[in-house]
Structure prediction request, 486 residues.
Amino acid sequence: MNKYRTYKKDLDYSYTLGISLTIELLTYQSELVQLVYISTNTSYDGGVAKIIEMCQYKHIPVEFNDKIINILSPKQNCYAIGIFRKYELPIQVEKNHIVLVNPSDSGNLGTIIRTSLGFGIRNMAIIRPGVDVFDPKVIRSSMGAIFHVSIEYFDRFEDYIERFSNQDLYTFMLDAKMSIHDIKMTKKPFSLIFGNEAKGLDESYRNIGTSVIIPHQKDIDSLNLSIAVGIAEYEFTKYSINI
Amino acid sequence: MNKYRTYKKDLDYSYTLGISLTIELLTYQSELVQLVYISTNTSYDGGVAKIIEMCQYKHIPVEFNDKIINILSPKQNCYAIGIFRKYELPIQVEKNHIVLVNPSDSGNLGTIIRTSLGFGIRNMAIIRPGVDVFDPKVIRSSMGAIFHVSIEYFDRFEDYIERFSNQDLYTFMLDAKMSIHDIKMTKKPFSLIFGNEAKGLDESYRNIGTSVIIPHQKDIDSLNLSIAVGIAEYEFTKYSINI
Prediction:
């Protein structure tokens, strides 16, 4: 009998699909890993050998089971799956944050998590309703970055603001007061706040902190959410990235 | 008998999936449209009414045909499909260009086309092998921006360089000579050159023009291609966007 089923939001576990994601999981969140499935259709060298070694070292059970891999993996050619317990990672005060209000696209969310890590922003708030960060699609599109970033959900934007009252707030919207080119940053930690992919932030956000636009030509309605977040993170961290 | 089949690269036509994309097609490339299919499972007001009106005005045949819509559309809820003849749009001299060397992801390519249009860059070169711009997935992820941008394929990078010898060339790579923060632009048109999603540009590009890095933390290997292109376009057009 297979204990694990295809991912649903209400399950208390999720999983990594593929060898490199499973290695990321075992490297950074090994204490959460319950079981690793490995396909019998692969050679046991390279990444697979590394996974088996890591599991032995950390006393994590390994099972060779093609049937469950076919069930859990919507794609062909998946050779390893790491099952892990879902976790909560409260975001930190006095750090820079990304705040996503009602994000709805799992691929976008993964890309945003990865880009944020790339620009050193390791704290993300999601205002509900929002896509589930533990959806295997988000994990995959984050390319494992999800295991390095604290992500916390809030029922209301007000709940977020209440706890993080010392942040400089920047709301990204088309009907904004200021161009991103003209922002003068302070010494306080910042929160870059973005709305839903289709609708953006509503008018009520215009007077929260500083509303900001990334100027673009009128030929498009708006930039893709993950592109807008990437540009904002690039600009706001420009002089603080250590290379 | 249905004349049109599921898209393949060697067909001489492609199609837009959905109402808003079909309206974009009819607005900007109507002379290429051969036929519009409309679903019988929709009301004939709003976007559908607009499509029918545009087709009447431009003498484009309209067919109500659920069967072919189901064949051509991999997703449910597609109410209109516009079949159009593929075209070639040579890129222009004395304009800014994006050059993609061997791009392989259709969703990424669509997003890049859309972002480029947003930053006023309407000329794109693709060095073969590269994903097919007329793949309906590219058209969809470009959200119609593809109909506003000239895109030309080249067999070799050298062929591109030969024709566009007056461009300032910037090759984006991790092993670069200069940070994007330090670029001093000239008055010449620029070409921003990016490699494949997985492999980037190889070492041979390092001495072509100015090699540039977008600095990021070591926690990630590289930025997603569409994010890197977005940031580069943002920075290079920063003082020239008319809003």
